[in-house]
């Protein structure tokens, strides 16, 4: 279920989606904007390979934590969407977090 369903106005929906998106990104590799295309390809390939690595998956399984891997392209789309918010949405998210 999406957090957006609880908001009434568009800004409310965007504010509700702001923080959960950061949890989905988790501890992935974050690179600066305008990174060289070849370096982006290398980082994505490494991340994608890790998400399929048997030893990594066994370690995740042993933690009993929720794990929903995403490709590098999917993560970038999520980051782009969640960081492309208006100042009003950002302020609503900050206010909600403070309450």
Give the secondary structure arrangement, pairings included:
Layout: H1 10-25, H2 37-50, H3 54-63, H4 72-83, H5 87-98
Helix pairs in contact: 1-4, 1-5
The portion of residues forming beta strands comes to: under 5%
Averaged pLDDT, please? 78
The secondary-structure element order is: HHHHH
Count of runs of 4 or more consecutive helical residues: 5
First-residue to last-residue Cα separation: 23 Å
| Rg value | 16 Å
Approximate shape: flat
**Biggest β-sheet strands, sense, barrel:** none
Q: By helix and strand content, what is the structural category?
A: mainly alpha
Structure description:
The chain is mainly α. It has one domain (3-98). Helix content is 65%, strand content 0%. The protein contains 5 helices and no strands. The protein has helices spanning 10-25, 37-50, 54-63, 72-83, 87-98. It is flat, with a radius of gyration of 16 Å. It starts with 9 loop residues before the first helix and ends with a helix. 5% of the residues are buried.
């Amino acid at each position: 279920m999406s957090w957006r369903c609880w908001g009434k106005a568009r800004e409310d929906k965007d504010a509700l989606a702001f923080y959960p998106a950061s949890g989905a990104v988790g501890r992935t590799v974050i690179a600066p904007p305008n990174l060289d295309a070849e370096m982006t390809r290398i980082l994505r390939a490494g991340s994608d390979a890790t998400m399929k690595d048997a030893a990594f998956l066994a370690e995740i399984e042993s933690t009993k934590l929720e794990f929903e891997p995403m490709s590098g392209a999917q993560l970038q789309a999520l980051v782009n969407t969640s960081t492309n918010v208006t100042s009003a949405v950002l302020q609503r998210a900050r206010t909600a977090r403070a309450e």
